[in-house]
Structure of HEAT repeat-containing protein 6:
Amino acid sequence: VCDGANPQGPPSPLPRDARRRLRSKAGPSASPQPGITGLQPGSCRALRSQTRTGFLFQDVCALLVQACQLVHLDQEHLVSKLCQLIHHLLNRFQVMVDEQNLNFLLSYCISALKQCSSWTHVEILQALAALVYNNGPKCQKYLPDLLGQAGLLVQFSDAAQPDVELRRAAVRSMANLCLSVPGQPYLDESYRSVCFQTFLTVLQSSKTSDVDDITFCMLLQNALKGIQSLLNGGKMKLMQTDQIGSLLAVLKKCMFHGLPGLSIEMPTALYPAPLPQYDKRSPVKQEQSEPATFKKKSKGKQKKGELAEEGREELGDAGNESVLGAGMVKLHLGDVQNSPCSDPRTGTSDVVYVPAGKDPLSSHYASWKRISSSESEYSDAEGGIQSKMRSYQANVRQGALACFLSAIKSIEKRVLYGYWSAFVPDAPGIGSPQSVSLMTIALKDPSPKTRACALQVLSAILEGSKQFLSVAEDANDHKRAFIPFSVTIASSIRELHRCLLLALVAESSSQTLTQIVKCLANLVSNAPYSRLKPGLLTRVWNQIKPYISHKDVNVRVSSLTLLGAIVSVQAPLPEVQLLLQQPSSSGLNNSGSATPHRFNSCEQWRKALPSEGEPPDNPAGCVSSEPCWLLRLCVSIIVLPREDSCSDSDANFPAFSSVYEPCPLRLESLQNEQQMLCVTLLLGLNHSENPLVKAAAARALGVYILFSCLRQDVMFVADTANAILNSLHDKSPNVRAKAAWSLGNLTDTLIINMETMGQSFQEEFSDLLLLKMLRSATEASKDRDKVKSNAVRALGNVLHFLQPCHIANPRFREAIEESLQALISTVQSEATMKVRWNACYALGNVFKNPALPLGEAPWTTQAYSALSSVVKSCKNFKVRIKSAMALSIPSKRECYGSTEQFCQIWSALVVALQRSEDTEDFLEFKYSASLRTQICQALLHLLSLAKSTDLPVLRETIAENGDAIGSHVLQYLKAGVEENEAGVHTDLCERERALKGAIKHLRGVEEQQEGKARVRVALYLEGVLANHANATGLIEA
């Protein structure tokens, strides 16, 4: 029927005689549209193209109606195939069925369910689910047949139904019926009650041995989707205690469904703990209280309304995601505080917490796969059964958390807080295990999306909890035979701080990190710190400060929000005053930059601040006459222009994405139709005759290509590439400049997809389009500088992306040679600094492609010669740094070519090191340290690859310039932790390892040589290392 997957594999096309019979009955006047009747596997792409070019939904509906008229209910095989066709067309292409055709098709499906054999019911229910999706208000007259006392969906979804696939299909249809349509009437109360009870029964059921895990997960997903739709669309208010308790019990059970290393048993219902009555005002004493009720409702943002039709959902490959092991929860707050200066700009902290026996956390998570229908599964090539199962289990957990978020908005806060202890962590007693809570998911779940969902739910619980938390108190040690409620809540607040700060250190996903910081901000805004022992805010403050300079703008914004919440704590606390009075060097660098770098005064901070449980003393000596650093930071962010890096890309993509990657929630929060509308408008506007409109559209496409939900769609990438290449040849220089910037972004995403999605993306991407991009970028590299700077960036990415099959292809050979010559000439040209910087960066990207004949092809010599000349003599130190970095990229000695060429590179780097302080422009002097660092790294890299024929020149250089080289290398080793110009951190141990590796390699090479040269390179380097060790020992002494 259509190229989509289902549990039994792709459905086969209609039998030939059936298709002939359909055509003959339809007559010549009813010639079908091409690509619809007789759909074969693989024809959906053509149909999608027709739909994009204005294919009318009415034609699809008319075709389906005509097919239903031709296929009688006694032809059960054709009925089954026809229902598959209805399901795939409506679900895959999101066809909106008008009311008249909907009535006919619904009547046909209901009659088929009543008359056809049971083996056809699953396909019929799938078609029914696609028909009723977002059409609930139009189905009112069919509700008695579907949801009445003896309704078909009620029967098929009954717990006694032995066929679990049939039950799942019925529950899915029922869930789709519960979706609300804005401005349209919703289900009657009686039908809502039937659906709610059905979904609840499904969630309470246990998996039997004859049901496979994936099918059971899909059944749970459909039930969760249904309950969420009832809570959101029906504005259902949960009032009865048994109803609330039953729902929260199954949600907590599903929240942990399939979580690795955890298995919990839940009662059928949770019961609220009796809460003391309290005044709306913050009480001065714990005993002063009077009855009160909450009137304020949660205003927390709701996650996307209803879960979409399963054909429009995304599944995450949880199998490839990093797992925070059980060892993680053993870390205490002290461990977190001891590294307040961890640099979050790399996406992880300096100290990576790894469970015993596990690999370090991976910074790359598997991309989310968009599938076509609820029956879709990964093929064996995409992952084994375990990976599929983990993915579906993660979806159940996400569905439960999304449903819980909707439930929070449907339950009065004073009722919800009775269940506080069931979902919010409390400090474990001595010898007792940690109770499972939302923070268990935030710390242990392998899926970053699930972790973010749990934190979003916790934020919704904390929002508006000020009155409830106001009873907390632990400032004074209690000496009673029992633990007062106030102390219990205080303990819970303290545990929340500990767990959230632990999650902050461990998290690597920017989106989840944003949710952690938002959750902390909600906690800080509602916790009564004046009644708690001081020290909690100091820990939060110290941990969040580095995140002001995080690579992701959303993390930076939420971090500032959290700092604002700390400053806004009621009854100005001495602890907060101390934090604000700390020196500006702790928050800003000396230049007053709006983006703080690593904070070197963390130890003084810790000494100046009170520890936990210790009241702050008079901050004598801490008061500074200069303005508060936080105030200076905020003002500088507002009034100073954004600092532009010298390129629109960088050596590592996280740094690139920090400036240019948009917030994914802006687009992904839209419905599919709205997303398609935005994309279609942009692609259309790209052909506008107005150059201003065309330039804006080209730039917007360059932003859209960075959204993860779009960049992994090969068809969107191809459409965008064609549109950008069209604008790249426009007569307006402004349009060409914007198009070149967008082409650079698009080629950046090619590399990201190549690294994250593997060969599958490369194989799907058109060779012809790739060749067209290569030629267009080469031509654009001859344009004016504004176009050229991004054109060479795109060239480097495309050449990095090429595969061996492309390089061997005669059609590519000439284009590759021309593009390389364009890059080399740009490096040697007198173009602007930004153009030459990008050209050096692009050549470094070229060197990363192992398929290119680096070291053998004639252009290799030209490329190395151009970079060697730049590293020695370019006036701009940033260009020198990037050229030195490019020279250190090849990973094998063969890539550097002949001995003569290798030695020329070595000599050029030595000369560049000696000239690293020679500059006529004083502004360049501040980059000299970074230049020396990069050159030293490149020299050590060359030494670790040198072969015996290279040694004579190396020895000669060391004999002539050994003292100068040694002093620079020694300074490089002593420099400690610093960030080089590319944003790459190298610490002391890493530098020492590089030197030791070079010594070991050279010692082995020199020992194999005959004769005994008096100047041994390895011996020379050992002397440098010994001097460094002696100097380090003296400093420590």
